[in-house]
Amino acid sequence: MQPANRPAPLAIDAPPPCRRRVLIVEDSAAQRRLLSILLARQGYHVLEAERGDLALAMCREEEPDLVLADWLLPDMTGIALCQQFRALPRQNYGYFVLLTSNSADNDIVAAIEAGADDFLAKPVAAQELLGRVSSGERIMRIEEELRASNAQLKTALDRLRQTQEALDRDLREARKLQQGLVRERSGQFGQFEVSLLLRPAGHIGGDLVGFFAISGERIGFYALDVAGHGVTAALLTAQLSVHLSGSSDQNVALRGAQAGQDAVSPMDLAHFFNNMMLEEMSTDSYFTMIYGDLNHATGELRMVQAGHPHPVLQRQDGTMEQLGKGGMPIGVFERPVFDAIATQLAPGDRLLVMSDGITEASAPGGRQLGDEGVEAIMRTNAFLHGHAFLESMAWSISNYCRGERPDDMSAIMIEYRGEAQLVAFPQGPDGRSRAP
């Protein structure tokens, strides 16, 4: 039977799994001894110091986890000790509790600003002491867990950075290989000049442009845009480039010519690729395409449009015409409808075939360049030809987007240069020709 005036046993947390080091800084030997016994019984490793300078020396050597310091010490205040304790280099967080009989608000604010974590009123009650120490224990455990998590996160980030650096190196090499798919950036066929532009938005992209000779009087040219831009798109463009390469034994469009027949027509080529995508490739990817067959002796042009943006034909007099009705992308439908385009080019005409990375280039406000913007660029740069025109167009688009270009950009410029014409300047009174 328990006497009525005997206090109930203290409800104290179980001893911590590791022996925390607790430093008691108190000039009263009796107070230090009392606090030391209470904490030692709970499994803590207790250190004692009667002055602030001795306490700081122990903090440098032992790095205690928790400090209980009196508000007033023989050589300094508890606040000053706390400030110097916080300035010491440490492996982990140190919990600092001030023992005080002073409850003035200004003093408490000053102690908190100095870095104190908690306060204990003197004389110290055993239950309150152990409760405050237990609270500090929980905070230190949380800090240790966070520190361990941060260390793991840092290790993971370091590994991720190394992986990213390796991936960037691979992608840079892949970019070189992809750029190598476009072996020739320009070509001269009779009075026609063909120029190519290929600018991936990232390291690698899903656009592809090119041309090849079909016969002595005909050339084939193509512009492809695989949905998305990245590794998957780049791999598909690489495979498609094999089927459209200049090598006659691999080029699908030239297979008929190998057998002494005519080359594959633009429409048949589009259906070939559509069947290949649906039957041979296990992928959800698709692509848009313009493929053209140009007779550079007569100017006769036949094309197929499969979901690609409308080619723009700029006549010699400056008038613009958008060709085609659109057509369906390749690799989506079993029975697609592609658009067949036939036109006649005359000397001075130029044809621009471009990807949607040009027509859908957006200004910071979200407004797209669109067909009108493309036509404006063509009028502005009408005096330029070949790569000079394409580079100027690329600069104008980059400036329109303020450098933020999310999609690949590719284009083909076909120009019917024709015969050069002499311009007769008017003569002055002295009989000499004068340029305007």
Automatic annotation (TrEMBL):
Molecular function terms, GO-annotated: phosphatase activity
Domain Response regulatory: residue ranges: 21-137
Any coiled-coil regions, as ranges: 139-180
Sorted UniProt keywords: Coiled coil, Hydrolase, Phosphoprotein
Chain positions found as 4-aspartylphosphate: D70
Record carries keyword RNA-binding: no
Domain of life: Bacteria
GO biological process entries: phosphorelay signal transduction system
PANTHER family: STAGE II SPORULATION PROTEIN E, STAGE II SPORULATION PROTEIN E-RELATED
Record's protein name: Serine phosphatase RsbU, regulator of sigma subunit
Lineage: Bacteria, Pseudomonadati, Pseudomonadota, Alphaproteobacteria, Rhodobacterales
